[in-house]
Amino acid sequence: MVDWNERRQAKLPDGQKSLLPVDFRVPVLSQVIVEFSRKADDPNVKSKELAQIIETDSGLTFELLKYVNSSAVGLRHKATTVFQALTLLGVRQAHLHLLTFVVQQSTSASKSKLIDSMEFWDTNLDRALFARAIAKHLGADADIAYTGGMLQDFLLPELTCRFEDLYTDYLDQKESAHGDLASFELETAGWNHAREGARLLISWGFPDELVYCVFCHHESYETLTDEELSSTAGAVTMSAMLPGPLRQVPAGPEYLFELERRLPEFQLLDVAAQVDQQFEELSSRTTNRRSLHNRIQEILQPAG
Questions:
Q1: 56, 40, 49, 37: which is closest to 83 by C-alpha?
Q2: Best exposed site among 9, 88, 96, 146 by fewest CB in 10 Å?
Q3: CATH 1.10.3210.10 region(s) of the chain?
Q4: pLDDT tens per residue across span 267-291
Q5: Dist. CA 13–CA 5, nearest whole Å
Q6: Can you give the pTM of this predicted structure?
Q7: Which one-letter DSSP state was computed for residue 291?
Q8: Residue 70 per-residue DSSP state
């Protein structure tokens, strides 16, 4: 059994301070979700007590009920109360979903000129669904993989707003002139969005396995070992290869080709079609999103 705390500590020890400038505006979570997270980690806590905490926030209540009753979750029974939702989903899955929702809300107000908020979160949902599908295929933790796919880049809206010139320089360079975005950030500024995002997740009480996934989502995709390939971290890392608004991984298509070669029974186009269907079920608004199936098909054609 993997000791995720040990692995996370090796990458990002407790107490390690942020390398971002002191005036950087860090997203803040509401007191309700902080209290819920603290209580949810207690194995002796009752679902009724957790439900009472969530019910003090109408936004969290609505989001949880919408999620648990969605066709994407696929439960046979519907929930009409928070307590029922926690019982049907389980505290762990409800906790991960609400944390993801709150982080998304806290970063959606960014006024970044380089990132369209709707496109950004649509891309993250694609990655989350893709990571979950891979995790299920590998027998890894699908819930953690989904959350890792959703949150791997959550700091980028604020970072691109605060450091617009740095990210403009990255986008202005030819793809052959630099590696992935995380490497460029590290070489240019001394920090990157993966490390700083993981550090924040620790402070917010996210599980070590998820923190590890976010920290490593750019770090190991070139050298995935068999063990990493079959883990939750591998699923999230592979989801980072999908095209993104900032071209975070220019060589991503090459690694998608490698994924098919290493896992011949895992068909990318089939997974992409599944992601597209689930995306439509989860997204409550009409977007100009091009289907992931078509985008991956275009990527795979040169290799065919």
A1: 49
A2: 9
A3: 111-304
A4: 888 888 888 888 887 766 556 778 8
A5: 10
A6: 0.86
A7: P
A8: S
